Amino acid sequence: MKNYSIVLLFLILTSCSVRKHNEQTTSLIPPEKLKQDVDYAYRKLQKMHPQLYWYISKEELAHKFDSVKSTLNKPLTPLQFYFTLQPVIASIREGHLSLRIPRKKFGKKDFKSFRNKKGMFSRFEYYVKDDHLYIVENKDSIEGILPGTEILAINKVPVSDYLKKYRNLISSDGFNTTFQPYFLKDTFFNFYTAENGLADSANIETLYNNVKKVYTLKRETKSKTDIENDKKLKKRTPEKKVNDYIAFNNSYNRNFRFLDKDSSIAYVKIRSFSRSYSDQFYKEAFAHIKNAKVSYLIIDIRNNYGGSLYEINNLYSYLAPEPFVLIKPSEVTSKMTPLKTNYFRKSNVLQYAYKSLTYPTYFFAQTFSTYKKDGKVFYKMKENKPTKPNKNAYNGKVFILVNGGSFSASSIISAKLKNDKRAVIVGEETGGANDGTVAGFYSYQKLPNSKIDLPIGLLLVQPNINFTNTRRGVIPDITVTESIQDIIDKRDPQMDWVMKEIEREKGNNAQ
């Protein structure tokens, strides 16, 4: 009975929390309160962000914050305020820095209802070009919509209006132009549903081969077979663990295979540096590479938004010919910065109790995690120190495939490999900056009146290279772009270039 009472109390508190949150998201906030939130956000950024004026001057940023305050002359909901303030945050041009879009929370009943239904927009794959949104894959052949179909409007609202609005909310690191289309195609419907809610149907006006059509998309209920298949997909086999299986889209974060009969060409695809079981994956993959005496290694980190510094440091140890340091000393704004990471964030009652017991250990570890040098404060990290090559390190030729969706940790390792002349970079300019980024760990600030979350990166992370100072992404050694027709026809011009180059080199070596 005691345990039952605790569970019942927890459910009641959760229900109240959801109701209170949803009431907050629809409330109108007076202009003077919104202005207070603007000042709060700017003040916290100035205090915590270690490289706030990397891509924008102090004067210009101050002007933008003042300007947005001058427009706040009527009450707004948190969502309306988000669309007002986020473009200013995006103008800082730090891709990791963004307000969290306020959205409705679902109670247990709502969650169960949507859990047993198929997605509506998520069953397509998309491509963004300028102010146009195209479908490039129809996973379930819904309504017979063909790849290459442009979505002109959703419920009679032009998609171009949405794209123009949402584009102002997204920034890469610095001044590259490749990141936005990739990130926008992946987040478009996150913004859309935040504005319009999770409906059970939507009318889309489309254009294909100069013919316009209107389709009604519906959120179909999953069959018993679908639900059983979902359960099977979620089961974690040893293979799924090592390759970091993602049940949501039935894919793997990591794949390894040979591309030819004699196993002279190895291919590693990494969709995310999630760290999950990564040690085992690289151990097994590079053991295979060593045993097969591979001549060429292709590492594909296209559409990889980044992740763990530990993982890329480990990966580099399998490619390094000699001891290396992955990143330069990581700067923070003060010795107290590591203690601003919201240790108790998102803790339930039991987690809070446990963390309370371990907090003294955390406090002392973080307190002694910094050091001062030349008037700056730095955070101690393993990746700042020399790492020895792995015993199974690969010494052959390496090609790295990148595109505008290669961000954060993907850009860090690409910049390092290029600087050290350890790989040939093929594709298009990365979405993340060549000379580093601000991320590492975050202080999760909440704007006091709108209650919008503002995660602020606390750590300046820069690859241990000679900086280009271009304020751009990693520029490939060989630039090869991909068109929408390539995607529809499932052609891969970047991989094709690498394979042709390998064949050319093999031919020269045979002479």
Q: What class, by secondary structure content?
A: alpha+beta
**Number of helical segments with 4 or more residues:** 15
Task: Report the sheet-strand fraction.
Answer: 15-25%
Number of strands: 19
**Poorly predicted regions:** 1-11
Helix content: 25-40%
The rough form would be described as globular
CATH fold-level topology of the largest domain: 2-enoyl-CoA Hydratase, Chain A, domain 1
The biggest beta sheet is recorded as: 6 strands, antiparallel
CATH class of the largest domain: Alpha Beta
Through-space gap between termini: 83 Å
Domain Tail specific protease: 226-481
Pfam family, one: Peptidase_S41
Organism: Chryseobacterium defluvii
Signal peptide: 1-20
Q: Concise description?
A:
The protein is of the alpha+beta class and 511 residues long. The chain has 15 helices and 19 strands. The chain has four domains: 89 residues, no CATH class; 102 residues, Pdz3 Domain, CATH 2.30.42.10; 167 residues, 2-enoyl-CoA Hydratase, Chain A, domain 1, CATH 3.90.226.10; 43 residues, no CATH class.
Question: Layout of helices and strands, plus pairs?
Answer:
Elements: H1 2-26, H2 31-48, H3 58-70, H4 78-90, H5 108-115, E1 124-129, E2 132-138, E3 149-154, E4 157-158, H6 159-167, H7 179-196, E5 201-208, E6 211-218, H8 224-234, H9 238-242, E7 245-246, E8 251-252, E9 254-258, E10 265-270, H10 278-292, E11 296-300, H11 309-317, E12 330-332, H12 349-367, E13 370-373, E14 376-379, E15 397-402, H13 409-419, E16 424-427, E17 437-446, E18 453-461, E19 478-479, H14 484-488, H15 493-510
Parallel strand pairs: 10-11, 11-15, 15-16, 16-19
Antiparallel strand pairs: 1-2, 2-3, 3-4, 3-5, 5-6, 7-8, 9-10, 12-14, 13-14, 17-18
Helix pairs in contact: 2-3, 6-7, 11-13
InterPro entries: ClpP/crotonase-like_dom_sf (IPR029045), Tail-specific_protease (IPR005151)
Protein name: Peptidase S41-like protein
Organism: Chryseobacterium defluvii
